[in-house]
Design a protein that fits this description.
This protein is 65% helix and 0% strand. It is mainly alpha-helical.
């Protein structure tokens, strides 16, 4: 059975193109025939990065829509923090002290 990678690990994949570009330049300096293979690797890495970007949440939203969502979420956090402070100040919760 194949175990799928957790989403967080997939999102934190290395999308650095610099090592591949460096390898291509080295191949060109050596007049190596591996240039086409290295270029194919670079093309595959770029395609992989495009797919990761297209699967990111919020990419399909316009910037004004994202700002509205952000404002709504900030309001929710502020309301929840206020409620939390209110409930803390009521002293309804007796926390037993460890002996």
């Amino acid at each position: 059975m194949a175990v799928s990678q957790p989403r967080e690990e997939k999102e934190s994949e290395d999308c650095s193109l610099l090592p591949l570009v460096h390898d291509i330049i080295k191949c060109m300096d050596k007049d190596s025939q591996d240039v086409h293979q290295e270029l194919a690797k670079l093309k595959a890495k770029i395609q992989e990065a495009r797919e990761l970007i297209s699967n990111m949440p919020g990419v399909d939203s316009s910037p004004p829509e994202q700002l509205r969502q952000l404002a709504t979420l900030r309001e929710q956090v502020q309301t929840k923090n206020q409620l939390l402070q209110k409930y803390k100040s009521l002293c309804m919760f007796d926390v037993p002290k460890a002996s």
